[in-house]
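Appendix B, example 12.
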Amino acid sequence: MRSRPRRIDLFALTSMFATGLVLVWAGVQPDAVATLVVGLATLYATWTGLGRSPETPSDEDRNG
């Protein structure tokens, strides 16, 4: 697995938090902001490969 700097994770978390605060202050419903943040967090986790299970050998690899 690739190692990446923790600063990128901190930046992503801080950006989502700041965006959520701005949207709530702008009058967006907190439920909608929560849904948005969950969606963004899911996209970020997919992009970085977090939560991905280790690769399993394919059928061709197992059968020789």
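The chain has a mean pLDDT of 79. Helices lie at 6-25, 30-48, 59-63.
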